[in-house]
Amino acid sequence: MTRLDEKNPTPRGELQLRVVAQPKDTNTNGDISGGWLVTHMDMAASIAADRIARGRTTTMAIGEMSFVRPVRVGSVICCYTRILGMGRSSIRIGIEVWCRMPEDEERQKVTETEIVYVAIDDNRRIRALPQTESTEVIN
């Protein structure tokens, strides 16, 4: 899945979340924490999963990822999602994080991964996804 080394890449998917990195989000080196980024990635991908599931989902797995550049305070972080696949109760979402540093004109890719969600009911039990006319998978 990794495209982090491509020249002039562009985001794949739909913009789900945009947030500005704040001083409170830093690690001990003064850069934005990787954990903070992962939290926002999960939040963005769950928006897409919940919409498809027409209700609650829960995170089941997060794929491997590498952070290719540090993110600084004041950077605008954008999370893009796309549906990679669906099962009876699961949804596999591809997510890419891009940022624009305060001093930069162009955005840069920070990381990407896949996250799997499972639809759950009000009792937190796995349930089937609703039937839809389109089960198109976007790559």
Instruction: Name the CATH superfamily assignment.
Output: Hotdog Thioesterase
Strand order of the largest sheet: 1-3-4-5-2
**Would you give the CATH topology?**
Thiol Ester Dehydrase, Chain A
Helix content: 10-25%
Main sheet summary: 5 strands, antiparallel
Q: Please compute the radius of gyration using only Cα atoms.
A: 16 Å
Order of helices and strands: EHEEEE
- CATH hierarchy: architecture: Roll
**Which of globular, elongated, flat, extended, rod-shaped describes the shape?**
elongated
Helix/strand structural class: alpha+beta
Summarize the structure.
One of its GO terms (biological process) is acyl-CoA metabolic process. By secondary structure, the protein is of the alpha+beta class.
